[in-house]
Design brief:
- The structure is a single chain.
- The protein is mostly beta strands.
- It folds into 2 domains: about 110 residues, Sandwich (Immunoglobulin-like); about 600 residues, Beta Barrel (Maltoporin, Chain A).
- It has 5 helices and 47 strands.
- It has a 22-stranded antiparallel beta barrel. It has a 5-stranded mixed sheet with strand order 8-13-14-11-12. Strands 3-2-5-6 form a 4-stranded antiparallel sheet, with no helix packed on it.
- The longest helix has 19 residues.
- The termini are far apart.
Length: about 775
Amino acid sequence: MMRQILSTVILVIFTTFSYAQSSGTVRGKVKSAEDGNSIPFAKILILTTSGSAVSDADGLFSIPKVETGKFTIRITSPQFEEYTAEIEITKDNITEVIAELKAGKTLGQVDVDYQKEARQIDPGTSVIKITKEDILRVPVTGGVADIAGYFQTVPGVVSTGDQGGQVYVRGGTPIQNKILLDGMTIYNPFHSIGFFSVFETELIRSADIYTGGFNAEYGGRISSVMDITYRDGNVKRTGGKIGLSPFVSSLILEGPISKANNISYIVSGKTSLLEQTSKTLYPYINDGDGLPFNFYDLYGKISIQGEGANKFSLFGFSFNDQVNYQAVSNLQWNSFGGGGNFIFVPQNSELFVKGRLNFSSYDIVLEEENLPDRSSGIFGTELAFDFTYYLAGKSRIDYGFGFNYFITEFETFNEVNKAIRQDENTIEAGAYVSYRWVSDSRRLILEPNVRFQGYSSAGQATIEPRASAKYNITENFRVKAAGGRYTQNFTSTTSDKDVVNLFYGFLTAPAATKLPDKFTKPDGTEVDIENGLQKAWHAIVGTEYDISKKVTLQIEGYYKWFDQMTNINSNKIYEDNSDNSKIDDVYKKDFIVESGQAYGGDIVIAYNTKKLYLWGVYSIGKVVRWNGFEYYAPVFDRRHNINLIGTYTFGKKMDWEFTARWNLGSGLPFKQTNGVYESPEITNISEDYIDNNANELTFLYETQNDGRLPTYHRFDVNLKKSFTSKKFKYLKWDLVAGVTNAYSRQNIFYVNRVTNEKVYQLPIMPSLALSVKF
C-alpha cells in the first residue's frame, strides 16, 4: 500500500512538471530603482489573464502556465509607484522580467486588502510576515526602533520584561526558538536590556515569525522560528544614516563598490550609551548608579548582483553584551560569525536555487557573588541548499538539504552546587521536501511536507512529517490548520535559584549515560530513555476574516505536546561513578527527562488606513511540565497577555506620527524560599559538626514554582516629526520624543535569594532621539 501511494505521488508530480512545461512562464525579480534592493511581497499581475504572484523575501517570483501572446504586466507595492511593461509570452519558453520600481506612494491607502492575494494561496498558519515599516509602527524605546519591541507584541510571545532579554513562544524556551539572519543561526538575538536586539532595523528587508506549525524547511528546533533577511547595500549611490539617543548611537554606511558590475557594500554599528547617560539623565534609577548596560554590534556585507536574479553575498558580524546588575555581579556574552549565500536562477529552467555556507559562535559567562560561575560556548557551521520549482497554477515544490557541525562547552551547577560540565562536538544532517498544492478554484491549499534529520551524537535519524492547509470558504473568510513532528539536539539548563532566569547556556543534548535509564509517565508507567533529544508535536487551527478593506480578524488555537525534554537535575547529590552504583539515578545523573504541554489561543484584530493603524492582541495560555515526580509551572507560564498598539500619522505633509503601546501580562511563576541555613562541611566522622563553621548557604524551597510574581503592565508613547531638505534630495531627519513606562509602574525583575534585594524593571524614562539619513 505504501509503495502504491508513493508511486502515485511521484507520477502526479512528474505529470505536473511535464504539463507545466507545455506553456509559457513569466519569472523575474522586483527591486527598487533607488538603491537596487529587492522588494518583498510585491503583487504581480498579468492583465487579462489569471496569472498572478507575490514576490518572496528576495523579490523573486514565477508564474508558470501562462497562455501565449502579448500582455501587460503590472507590479505594485506600498511605498513605490506602479510598474507596467509589455511582455510577450511564447510556448515552452521563459520570459524574464527584472522590474525596477520607483519610490513614491501611489496607493490611496495601505489597507488590509493589499496582501489578500498572498493570504489566499499561502497556508500562513501561526506566521506573521513583517517588514521594516511594520517594526516602525511599534513605539520605540529611547527613540530607536528595534525588532525586539515588535517581537514582544506577537501573539503567543512572553517576555521577561525590560531587562534580561529572554522571550518564550507558546510554551517553548529560548533555546527552542530558531533565530536566523540570512539563513545563519544567531544564538542570542537579544541584549540584556530587553528593548534592543542585535539586529539593525534599517537593514531589515523582511522577517517571518513562526510561533508554531512551521514548514519542514526549518529543522533543529521544536518551538518557533524567526527568519530575518537583510537588504543589500545601495548599488546606485553612497549614503547612510546616523542615530543618536540617550540609549544608543548608531551609524550605517552603504554604497557601490562597482556600479558597472553591480557590487555594493553596507556596514552598520551601534553601541549603548546608557552607562554614560543614565547617571545624568535618570539619577533616580538605582540610587543614582544609573543603568550599567553595555553592548555594541557590528555588521558588514558585500553583495554582487549578477545577470537576471542571480546574486552572491559575503557577510560578517560581531555582537557583544555586558552588564552588572544591582544584585548580580557580572553577565557578559559575545557572538561573532560570517559566511556567504547565493541565489542562482538557471536559464531555460523554472528552478530557483539558493545556498549558504556560514559559521556562528557564542560564549556567555555569569559571575555571581557567593556562587560558582556559569559559562557556556557554542560554535556551529552550516552548508545548505534550497530549491524551489513553481508548478501550474499556484502550486510549487520546495526541497533542500544541509549539514551542520557543532562544538559545545558548558559548565553550570544545580541547587546543591554540584557541577555539571560538558564538552561535546556533533554532526547533524537534514533534508526536506514540501509540496504546496493549490486547487484551480484557489479555495483549497494543501501543503504536506516532511523533514529527515540525522543526529550523530544521539545515534538517531528522525522522520518528521508536517502539514498545513487552508480553505477559502469565501473571498474574505478562511480556515487553516498546521502541525507536525519536531526534534532538536540542543538543550539549556537554568537555575531555579533565579526568580527570573538571566543565564541560558547551550549544550548538545546529553548522552544516554548522563540520563536516567527510565522515565516515569504521569500514569505511573515507565519507558526507556534512548537519547537526550528534545521532541514535540504541534497542532494548530485558526480562522482569518477580512471584515472590510480596513479591518482583519484572526483567531488561532494551539496545542504543543513536548513528549521529551532534558533539564538540569536539581536532585543530584552524588557523583555518577562505580562507588554509587546502587544509588538511584535521580540522585546522581546530571540531567533528567521531562515532558510537558502548552496550549491556548490568540485573538488578533487590526485596523489599517493611510493615517491610522490599530493592532490588538489577546493571548491566553497554559504551560505545564512533568519531571517524573510532579507537575509544575515553568517560569514563563503567563496565563494572560494583552498588547494594544496605535499609530496615527497627521499633518499637511503627513510628517507627524504618534505611536502608543500598552502591554499587560499576568504574573510569572517562581519557586518561593521557605528558609535558609548554613551547611557545615564535615570531612570525617570525628569532627564536631555542631561547632563546625559553615561554608555555604543552602536554601529550602516551596513546592516547584508555586509562587506568582505581580502582574506586569507598562505604557509607552512616542511622537515623531520628519524633516526633508529641498536642497538635498536624499537628506532626511527624524526627531523622536518618547516616554517609556509612562506611569512608572514598578515591575519586578530580579530577587537575590541571599539578600532578598529586589531589582525592578525600568521606571519612567523620557527620551529625545535624532536620526539623520543621507
